[in-house]
Design a protein that fits this description.
Layout: E1 6-16, H1 55-67, E2 75-76, E3 79-82, E4 92-95, E5 102-103, E6 106-111, E7 114-127, E8 131-135, E9 138-142, E10 149-155, H2 162-179, E11 191-200, E12 210-215, H3 218-237, E13 245-250, E14 255-261, E15 271-272, E16 279-280, H4 283-291, H5 297-308, H6 312-319, H7 322-333, H8 338-357, H9 367-378, H10 384-395, H11 402-408, H12 417-430, H13 432-439, H14 445-456, H15 463-475
Parallel strand pairs: 12-13
Antiparallel strand pairs: 1-10, 1-11, 2-16, 3-4, 3-15, 5-7, 6-7, 7-10, 8-9, 11-12, 13-14
Helix pairs in contact: 2-3, 5-6, 7-8, 7-9, 12-14, 12-15, 14-15
Bound molecules: zinc ion.
The site of zinc ion has 8 residues, from loops.
Length: about 475
């Protein structure tokens, strides 16, 4: 009976899929439209209407399953989950109960303590509900979200702390974005998660768990987990017992509240949906989806550290967004130096891309353009500072060839030895005392002369050539 309590956490992640239309009708699947303008009799649950399945929503869910190495059963079906609440006018949610589209799978991710793996129990597809808006003592309902395809990913209880849960969620979000099935915009509610948490002592069975629902940011999930660990620890340490209940998290107040005693599956009286035929998947089609999967972040980051000697931190930065990682891969494939490519991306491409993309990184540069820039720097045609200040912002989001741009804008450094020699002689003539000191052995003064020449030529000379010419000219008397 000794030792601290260990938290055990399982997550249910709800992710809205990025299909053009809703799951059972032709209404547009868009965010931010005026309330109740993206609805029809089907998604409003009018009697007598019939659902028609959006095959793309099935494809996206299966692709997610394939990305995490899950089993894709050939046969899957729909069930009604009955509950009475104004966000769902039919009084049931069309969901999947015993035969989901995806079974099993696992997600590996890095934590400061090394690699961890979370096993996935299942992924099923269902319709999202409408949204209740509580305002000035009234509650209004917006059904625009009702019928948006929602993929629910259920993990096994393999997590043991807030930081680990956030690392897992970050990896999961990256996978979803890499395969392009959702925008995963948390502030728009397209990714939400429920936290199941219990405490136990080492070697003892898991304690009673609670479920905190609808966490809509990773930081809120982390805070809710910390709070719930503290709350349950206090109860158990005081000799009490944890109640099995569903809880709500108030992120602004930083505390959770009991909502209701936890419902069991039997409370929903699941039964097979009579209005929809089962889903029978075509093996060849599933295999085609599998073959079309991109290489995911985890694998790319591993390759960047192994093959290119990048640090784990740099590899993580480069692979956070698929567009950035694709840019890196494409540029290196053209023959660019991986480390130099990585540095230019991590410094300037990420800065420009974040300014524009908000939560995501918008990449306004092609591999060919980035390769061109690196070649110009490598060849001494232009310095890094000029690339950062004068070139990158001007060719960003265009298809302008960097070499042409540099030439036309007159930004190329002069490699012309005669021109440089003339400038060098002039500067030496203007600073005879420093020249004498240099000849007397004060070699640090070379930097002084380089600076003067660069200034006189407005930074357009190749510093390496300037160095060489200066060394030669200073030796003459
Ligand atoms: Zn509709």
């Amino acid at each position: 009976m000794n030792g601290a309590y260990i938290p055990t956490i399982g997550l249910e992640i709800h992710c809205e899929l990025k299909t053009a239309s809703k799951i059972f009708c032709g209404c547009p699947n868009v965010f931010g439209a005026p309330p109740n303008t993206q609805c029809c009799p089907v998604c409003l649950g009018f009697p007598g209407t019939l659902p028609v399945l959006n095959r793309r929503a099935v494809e996206y869910t299966v692709r997610m399953g394939l990305a995490i190495g899950a089993e894709i059963p050939a046969f899957s079906k729909w069930d009604r989950k009955n509950y009475f609440y104004p966000d769902l006018p039919k009084a049931w949610q069309t969901s999947q109960y015993d035969l989901p589209l995806v079974k099993g799978g696992r997600v590996a991710f890095m934590t400061p303590d090394g690699e961890k793996t979370v096993r996935i129990e299942r992924i099923h597809l269902e319709e999202d509900a409408g949204k209740l808006i509580h305002e000035n003592g009234f509650t209004r309902v917006d059904y625009n979200r009702g019928g948006v395809p929602l993929m629910e990913i259920v993990t096994l209880p393999d997590l043991h702390g807030a930081a680990e849960a956030v690392a897992f969620l970050t990896e999961l979000k990256s996978i979803i974005k890499y395969i392009g099935v959702s925008d995963v915009k948390m502030q728009e509610g397209s990714l939400r998660c429920d936290v199941n948490l219990s405490l136990s002592r080492p070697g003892e069975p898991l304690g009673t768990r609670t479920e905190t629902k609808n966490l809509n940011s990773f930081s809120a999930a982390a805070r809710a987990i910390e709070f719930e660990i503290g709350r349950q620890t206090e109860i158990l340490a005081g000799g009490g017992s944890v109640l099995q209940e569903t809880r709500r998290w108030d992120d602004a107040k930083g505390r959770g509240y009991a909502l209701r005693s936890k419902e069991d599956a039997q409370d929903y009286r699941y039964f097979p949906e009579p209005d929809l035929p089962p889903v029978v998947l075509d093996r060849a089609e599933v295999e085609a989806w599998r073959r079309a999967l991109p290489v995911l972040r985890y694998e790319r980051a591993g390759r960047y550290t192994r093959e290119f000697g990048l640090s784990g931190y740099d590899a993580g930065l480069l692979t956070g967004d698929r567009a950035v990682s694709d840019l890196f891969d494409g540029t290196v494939a053209l023959g660019a130096n991986p480390k130099k490519t990585a540095n230019l991306i991590m410094g300037d491409v990420l800065r420009l891309g974040r300014e524009e993309g908000g939560e995501d990184v918008a990449v306004g540069l092609s591999p060919a353009q980035l390769y061109g820039l690196l070649s110009l720097i490598e060849g001494g045609v232009i310095g890094l500072a000029a690339v950062q200040k004068d070139v990158l912002p001007r060719i960003w989001n265009t298809d302008i060839d960097p070499e042409t741009f540099v030439k036309e804008a007159g930004l190329a450094q002069s490699g012309d030895a005669d021109e440089i020699a003339a400038a060098v002689r002039e500067i030496i003539a203007q600073n005879p005392r420093q020249a004498d000191d240099y000849r007397a052995g004060n070699e640090k003064l070379l930097a002084f002369f380089v600076g003067r020449v660069m200034k006189a030529t407005k930074g357009k000379c190749n510093p390496k050539t300037v160095n060489e010419v200066l060394t030669t000219e200073l030796k003459k008397r």
